[in-house]
Design goal:
249 residues, alpha+beta, Helicase, Ruva Protein, domain 3, 4-stranded antiparallel sheet, oxidized purine nucleobase lesion DNA N-glycosylase activity
Amino acid sequence: MPEGPTIIILKEAVQAFKGQKVLRAEGTTKKLDPALLNNRVITDFKSWGKHFLICFDTITVRIHFMLFGSYLINERKAAIPRLSLQFDDGELNLYACAVQLIEKPIDEVYDWTADVMSPAWDGNSAIRKLRENPAMLACDALLNQEIFAGVGNIIKNEVLFRIHVHPGNLVGNIPENKLAEMTEEAVNYSFDFLRWKKEFTLKKHWLAHTKKTCPRDHIPFHKEYMGKTNRRTFYCPVCQELYQDNEAP
């Protein structure tokens, strides 16, 4: 599943189509009639977390790549795209994704302060939301898109390893300084992810995700499917602390 930084890369890659008219829209999506987009001019491309937003004058098309979605610019797969936008000098093809038409102004739909890669990101708001959910597990909190829009499973595993916090912690038991670290590192790692992804070196920098041995303690990582999200979680039972009853670090 693409995480927020991957959507930023897509947004940057399609900037040449901004201001261009869609000459032909087609695809297998049932959520909107692609012909609705014919002859409309793209006013902007935006992202919110894992959502890729194609903006027109009065409507927006939201793309979510789910688990297996992908895209191609100026080329096609053998498969029919879920949505294809063709321009005078190129095309954008989107595959195996969820397509949704948004007819409201997107500022009424999205809380930009929750996007960890947005200039409008508000870390204090994220901490407040965490405090409002003391029974949520740390592994679920980082994947909660209303708190950390754009954070996916890779970022979750790496952030918790960076800050020495066990993924099974209840948010209410995590010390305040660690909640602040979690919030800060969710942003830091997302921008590291973006840089490494552009360099094609992302996997070389993984310390916890998919790894078998803790590089700090040199013992086997635990691998579990944890929390309500039931996502793969890799952690060290020694250096990632499990707090009880608001213990101090």
